[in-house]
Predict the structure.
Amino acid sequence: MLDKLKRLSKDTMIYGTSTIIGRFLNFLFVPIYTNLFLPGEFGIVANIYAYIAILNVFLSVGLESGYFKFASTLEVGSEKENFSHPFLGIFLNSFLLSGVLFVFAGDFTYLFQIDPSQAGLLRWTALILFFDAISLVPFAYLRLQHKPMKFAVIRIANIVLNVAFNLLFILVLRKGIEYVFISNVIASGVTFLLLTPIVFRNFKISFNKKLWSELLRFSLPYIPAGISSNIIQVVNRPILTALTNDTTVGIFQANYRLGIFMMLFVSMFEFAWRPFFLQNAKEPNAKEIFAKVMTAFVVLMSLVFLILTYFIDDIVSIKLPGKGHLLGMAYWSGLVIVPVILLAYFFYGIYINLMAGIYIEKKTKYLPYITGGAAVINVAANFLLIPQMNMMGSAIATLLSYIVMAGGIYYWAQKYYYIKYEFGKIGMLFILIAVFYIVFESLQRLFGTVGAGGIIVTDSWFWAVKIGLILLFVTLIFVSNIIDYKVIRRFI
């Protein structure tokens, strides 16, 4: 079992390295946008990208997930057929849908909540959607073939190009928000070109009726499930726009993006986790392995949550060379939502862990109910809480929906693929998180003063207090035997 966990950790680290580099480069957009764009302009960009996330589901129709399932087992069709069928399905569907958006962009401006004069933004959006969709199966192929290095290089190339052209257009040439989307089109187009050798090697013109039937049966539930999942992530932007204004949306989005540090660890784990559990599902001790993975994941996420919560004020107030901060001062009033968003992504990571049973037993038909219920709660909570709590209400709505998603998938996964998770250890971790968060907040308010933008400023010695609390947390993890130090030494 230790060897398999080492393999998962190795793949996670490689994917993680690319994800960390990529997310860091991507995060450069935050200081660029928040120091050069008005909150209202940044709100428009955030809103359109929210719709892009939802539309991605319609273009992929869940066939990427179908590819993972059937290409990993080859229970139906050949290896090339299992690549070609989902790739062709996504290609034709995305060509049609993105083509409609491109041609009739002016007619869709109302739905995207932008002025008709900005229809050009939607044409660039259509191209982003198309290139990103047709890259899904080639990227999935690299993950399934255990080629994380190649996967990482191409992903990093995508983000480097995007950042480079953003720097050129926005920072150097001082262009407007249209060039945010143009930069993305260039990066996404080049990315697909880099993936074309994989397509040429694996594509085969054929029609396997049984494979199509199995693919669609497994994949189609991902359409409503994916829509619901993306609604949870992005619907707060248009609701905030309707109930508040573009400025509030811009401030919310900038601080919501700070949650990317938690999402970073969830993403790097997810890249390795899906092929890992599919390829190890038939091992005699598979369920024991999966339970250990869950505990280790919660330990890591607990530590990440506390570190980010303790130091987020210090991170965003870092001064940039020349002028400005890592996060523009006009956006600091939204920092209060960051711990809530971090905790929301924490529960999303638990949801990803619990996905194994649904995949293995082909029970994807329950996903629309799980994510759909969470989406309904998210929308309702946004409308109820935003008028009372402003952007904090939207952050809490996001957290509630991810808790519901984790609870829902736990119920259905355990019903068909029962795993004896280490709930005693996981429960102890959540108690420790709560205690250490309350202690930190109390000490910060006791010894700090409110500074610019509402940030609580503390003396330099308070850094030692924060580091001491983190070290004490780690010590208690070992003392309480949540993680066995001897196992860690063997693992290393």
The longest strand covers residues 449-450. Residues 229-492 form one domain.
